Amino acid sequence: MESMDPRLYDAATIGDLSFLGKIRNGEVLIDLVSQKTPKDNNILHIAAEFKQMDFFKEVKFHHPQSPRFWAINKNNETPLHVAARVGCHEIAESSLLINAKCQPIESVDPENGPAGGENEY
Fold first, then answer.
1. Where are the alpha helices (DSSP H) in the chain?
2. Which of 18, 35, 40, 117 supports an S-S bond with 113, CB 3.0-4.6 Å?
3. By the 8 A CB rule, do 34 and 2 touch?
4. Predicted TM-score of the model (pTM)
5. Per-residue model confidence as pLDDT tens digits over 69-83
6. Contact call for residues 32 and 69 (beta carbons, < 8 A)
7. Residues sharing a CB contact under 8 Å with residue 107, sequence separation 6 or more, in sequence order
8. Domain locations in the chain as residue ranges
9. Among 78, 90, 20, 19, CA closest to 46
10. Which InterPro entries does this chain map to (predicted)?
11. What angle in degrees, to the nearest 10, is found between the helix axes of 17-24 and 53-62?
């Protein structure tokens, strides 16, 4: 993994959406997937830590099925854990909703059915 570009770190901490736009249109060449801090935080961990909801949602919108969301840092935390820990319930809720929409129907447990559903016997 690459050490996180300081410009990307700064953008995630302040919620700089224009920097993400520069990455998308090729003005800035950064591979978002390979960027990690020394504590193994990725940009979603950082955005959650600093409660940058719009930045977090923008990354998730353009990479909805990215394994980056579930990556753990050296504290064994996913970005969802970080959001919950710092009290950013908007990011936590948004993350759960986005990921629920991306789950294939085959992931339903055949023994228990969908969450919250009643089993018929």
1. 6-14, 17-24, 43-49, 53-62, 79-85, 89-102
2. 117
3. yes
4. 0.76
5. 678 999 999 999 999
6. no
7. none
8. 2-103
9. 78
10. Ankyrin_rpt (IPR002110), Ankyrin_rpt-contain_sf (IPR036770)
11. 20
